[in-house]
Write a structure and sequence with these properties.
The complex is a heterodimer.
Chain A: H1 5-25, H2 29-55, H3 59-89
Chain B: H1 7-28, H2 32-52, H3 56-80, H4 93-116, H5 132-140, H6 144-164
Helix pairs in contact in B: 1-2, 2-3
The chains are: A mainly alpha, B mainly alpha.
């Protein structure tokens, strides 16, 4: 049997759901960041699969390059914020970061 | 034409299996260092999928930037933000059930959409691997403005991260 667009869409949807599950179940801020990376990867698989099987142009691949770039930038800033968080609270448990809650 | 017609399905299921299996490992593992290592498996599997999808450049970028850069950054973050790297966070049972219900519903809805939608046929569906030079040309002509904005963004991120992570006076 040949591999088609639907196969890749299934993989992408499963990755998306596993990423959301990671974000929901982790307390550790870095665990949540890992979940975000999973979701971004799922989006990229979608973009590239549609490029390969439908549009034929390379726009999807180029957008995916920008997504990878943004993911790297986001990870750098997030890790810097987590280090500040850790310096103040001595933990990266997101439930403890509730100082602004009324 | 293609002497190995069985190769593509085998490689697809191998890469997808590695990616999804490692992603399940990320969710299940209660140890943040193991989660970060499983993320390497997911990134590698997705890079394999990119190769199968004729996106050579993207697969290499995925391995260099994601597996080489972002993952190392995450592991450094783990090392810098935990007194012992083996801290465990266990979610409550109710939270697990709620999260599983929501994501299972989302997954079923998405799969139903994928199986029932008639995607419009594309202009050409069996293109060969995209030449890397073409991607570069598109990036510096049609996508020049996003490219430059991305450069500025990276500069801002570099300064911002250094500012945020500076030691307290």
């Amino acid at each position: 049997m040949t591999i088609g667009l639907t196969h890749y869409l299934f993989v992408s949807a499963s990755l998306l759901c596993l990423g959301i599950l990671t974000m929901a179940l982790k307390r550790n801020a870095i665990g949540i960041l890992i979940g975000v990376e999973l979701v971004l990867n799922a989006a990229n698989v979608n973009l590239v699969a549609f490029t390969r099987y439908r549009t034929g142009a390379m726009d999807g691949q180029i957008v995916a390059v920008f997504v990878i770039l943004l993911a790297a930038a986001e990870a750098a800033i997030a890790i810097a914020i987590f280090m500040n968080f850790y310096n103040r609270l001595a933990t990266v448990d997101v439930d403890r970061g509730d100082r602004l809650a009324g | 034409m293609n002497p190995y017609p069985w190769l593509e399905p085998v490689m697809f299921y191998l890469c997808a299996g590695v990616a999804l299996g490692a992603a399940v490992g990320i969710v299940v593992s209660r140890n943040i260092v193991r989660s970060a290592l499983y993320l390497l498996g997911t990134l590698g599997g997705v890079a394999g999928l990119y190769f199968l999808l004729h996106a050579n450049l993207l697969a290499v970028i995925q391995l260099i930037v994601y597996a080489g850069g972002t993952l190392v950054l995450i592991i450094f973050g783990v090392m810098l933000t935990s007194r012992t790297p083996w801290v465990r966070y266990t979610p409550r049972r109710g939270e697990v059930v709620a999260a599983l219900l929501v994501t299972a519903g989302l997954l079923l809805a998405l799969l139903r959409v994928f199986t029932t939608t008639e995607w419009s046929a594309g202009a050409r569906t069996t293109a060969g691997p995209a030449p890397v030079a073409d991607v570069g040309t598109r990036l510096l002509t049609d996508y020049l403005v996003p490219f430059e904005v991305a450069s500025v963004l990276l500069l801002v991120v570099m300064i911002g991260a250094a500012y945020l992570a500076r030691p307290e006076k």
